Amino acid sequence: MTAEPNRADLGKDPARVSGMFDQVAAGYDRTNTVMTVGNDALWRAATTRAVAPRRGERILDLGAGTASSSASLAASGADVVAADFSPGMLEEGRRRHGDLPNLSFVQADATDLPFGDAEFDAVTMSYSLRNVQDPKKAIAELFRVTKPGGRLVINEFSTPPSPIFRAFFGFYNSQVLPRVARVAGTNGEAYDYLNESIREWPDQKTLAAWLREAGWIDVAWRNLSFGIVALHRARKPVA
């Protein structure tokens, strides 16, 4: 018997969000590739370049999902921790990338990370901060576990600056994306939530202000694909 689709809402209850991602884990990467017309690979490469991982560094990939981004970081030789609160996503990540000796997997709540202070040379999140019930608390936790001088990179859906492209993106998200997800064989209701979460997510300047508020410095961002996503970068001050 097929389980009823688990649909999260903008209340972002952790159990419901985690359960939703558990259900879409097997087809998650395939669906993302289809619905982004292959841009997900370009965005992942841009994120890896922004993190600039180096051999010997310890890097946290929070909200890692199926660990595609983590594997890209680990290719540098850095020790990468793929952390996510969805056990289904982590299981899929282990199945695909568990053979990498410098990649480990940890189930974690972004607002209460199971790591000590100043453990990581760099921390990163891709398309997951907006799924956290208290994103400012997650940003503060990332700050806590980063070493002084360490790097932060957040890649997240954002607000296209062009009104025309913004309108097109809104139409695509609300009318096309859920249908694509259903055709791809995953939980279409999950992608209804995806559209809602993107629509309600703050713009680039607001997220940058949240980072500064948490103590990050040298905050900057770069729009990718006309601002469909924005790559935010920052650094933790040296004590």
TrEMBL record:
Organism: Microbacterium bovistercoris
Family: Belongs to the class I-like SAM-binding methyltransferase superfamily. MenG/UbiE family.
Protein name: Demethylmenaquinone methyltransferase
Regions crossing the membrane: none
HAMAP family tied to this protein: MenG_UbiE_methyltr
Superkingdom, natural source: Bacteria
Reaction(s) catalysed (UniProt annotation): a 2-demethylmenaquinol + S-adenosyl-L-methionine = a menaquinol + S-adenosyl-L-homocysteine + H(+)
Gene: menG
Purpose of the protein: Methyltransferase required for the conversion of demethylmenaquinol (DMKH2) to menaquinol (MKH2).
Pfam family of the protein (one): Ubie_methyltran
